[in-house]
Amino acid sequence: MKKKKVLIVGGGSAGWMTAAGLACFLPAQRFEIIQIESTTIGTVGVGEATIPHIRQFNQMLDIDENEFMRATGATYKLAIQFTGWGHKESCYMHPFGRSGHDINGINFHHFWLHLQQKKQNKLPTFEQFSIAVLAAQKHKFQYQKQDQNPLLSDYSYAFHLDATLYAQYLKSYSLKRGVVSIEGKVTKVNLAADSGDIQSVSLGSGQQISADLFIDCSGFRGVLIEEALKTGYQDWSHWLPCDKALAVASEKTTNPPPYTRSAAKKVGWQWRVPVQHRTGNGLVFCGDYLSDDEAHSILLDGLEEPALAEPRLLRFKTGKRHKSWHKNCVAIGLSAGFLEPLESTSLYLTQIAIQKLIEFFPTDQISDVERDAFNQHLNTEYERVRDFLILHYKLNQRNDSEFWRYCQNMPVPDPLQQKMTLFKQSAHIPAYRQGLFMPASWLAVYLGQGELPKQYDPRVLAYPADKLIQYLQQLAEHVARTADGMQNHNMAIQQTLQAGMSAYPQAALSLYGDRS
């Protein structure tokens, strides 16, 4: 049987995650995987914060977690800290896990809201019921074990990592599994006259490479999916108006926190991502409201460690291709779309595209059935991440710039407006089976940015308020003691660097993300 050829155009995280995933699951006797990568084309290399699903991807590839952390300079991550997003002085955490426990089938936050509206004295803050929040604030981390405190299973974790090192690690992984790597730059894409499919690509060296399926990991340009196939782009910048980012690395911090920081600024926001050997920083902003020079000053003034280089300017347009899979080309990573890294979703969207491509991979002829199923799934993923990001901007209460006032007053997509209206009226958060962010995540942003609903589940009125407040106080004290007893984050990293093969400790990914 003649081998089918799969050609991946582009390297970086998206390209080598794709190559590794296909090399792991496509039998080598039936498929040949070729990767074209040009050393003259730089990668974005700023997406260094992840969410818990990256562990699922690594485990899918049978990658040892300790080895991965050593190779990528990774640190642990329990949450994202948002400063200045509700009002200018506000600060809250979006944890990888839940807060409190449901009582007799009633969501915990309804009890807290009931007591909060009654203005009960000594009511703990909502974050005090989250083990992930308290551990992150105290710079703690440890794996959970079944014989330990049940609270230690109420959170998941992710990583801060060097995306360039991760790509290099996966490149080595892929080459060992038979992927053919070719150095070169695509200068021409050759289309079939009858079908419009891609037949081959031509390189600057004169070499011409044909394939059955082409995967575009070429970044914002979309060399195959857009420049050749003219697939078209959905522009979402009227909802997410930031269109530029300045990125710079600074010196490492001696005590890296197990959380990513997102600090709202006059226009846009600044990220801080601590890895073992440096700190990643960047300012996401809108060029209509802030000049590049002003953004440069804001970014450097907000650094906690000395910069290691001059900031690098990136331009982007928030949105996605009309089709991620068009004809015989699949776009993965930035070539498929861009959503700003406010919730560290870049590698997740790459990962989910790879997993769905493997699931729908055509073993014979490519048909509309696989293409349509893949595109529908990816559209839903992008739109639900989009709506969650818009929520942060829409709920802001800042009045210190025209940018934030625009975000407060802008109309939002209908599905998001319906969710917001439902929560404001009744404190209910609809759940969905497909999509990244579960109710715990939405709740963290609603309450963190000061959106307190008018009503709550009336069933909580059957519970005596004095007994409820006593229970909540005891629970908050238990969470605090548990967090205090956890291991120091820095010590956990050092143990990982010295450890052998890991045992893949599991945490409940469904607490934070996709249950499918």
Describe the structure.
There is one protein chain. The protein has 516 residues and is of the alpha+beta class. 35% of the residues lie in helices and 18% in strands. It is built from 15 helices and 21 strands. Helix 5 crosses helix 14 and helix 9 runs antiparallel to helix 10. It starts with a strand and ends in an 18-residue tail after the last helix.
What is the typical, i.e. mean, pLDDT? 92
The secondary-structure class comes to: alpha+beta
The backbone outline, from C-alpha atoms, is globular
Q: What fraction strand? A: 15-25%
> Which radius of gyration do the C-alpha atoms yield?
23 Å
State the end-to-end CA separation. 34 Å
What's the β-strand tally?
Answer: 21
Q: Count of helical segments?
A: 15
Q: Helix amount, in percent?
A: 25-40%
**Main beta sheet: strand number and arrangement?**
7 strands, mixed
Contiguous low-pLDDT stretches (5 residues minimum) are: 503-516
With strands numbered from the N-terminus, the spatial order across the biggest sheet is: 5-4-14-15-16-13-17
List the helices and strands and how they pair.
Blueprint: E1 4-9, H1 12-25, E2 31-37, H2 53-60, H3 65-72, E3 75-77, E4 79-83, E5 91-95, H4 108-117, H5 131-137, E6 158-160, H6 163-176, E7 180-183, E8 186-191, E9 198-203, E10 208-210, E11 213-216, H7 223-228, E12 233-235, E13 244-250, E14 259-264, E15 269-274, E16 279-285, H8 292-301, E17 312-315, E18 319-321, E19 325-326, E20 329-331, E21 337-338, H9 346-359, H10 368-394, H11 402-409, H12 414-426, H13 439-448, H14 465-484, H15 489-498
Parallel strand pairs: 1-2, 1-11, 2-7, 4-14, 11-20
Antiparallel strand pairs: 3-6, 4-5, 8-9, 9-10, 12-18, 13-16, 13-17, 14-15, 15-16, 18-21, 19-20
Helix pairs in contact: 1-6, 1-9, 5-14, 9-10
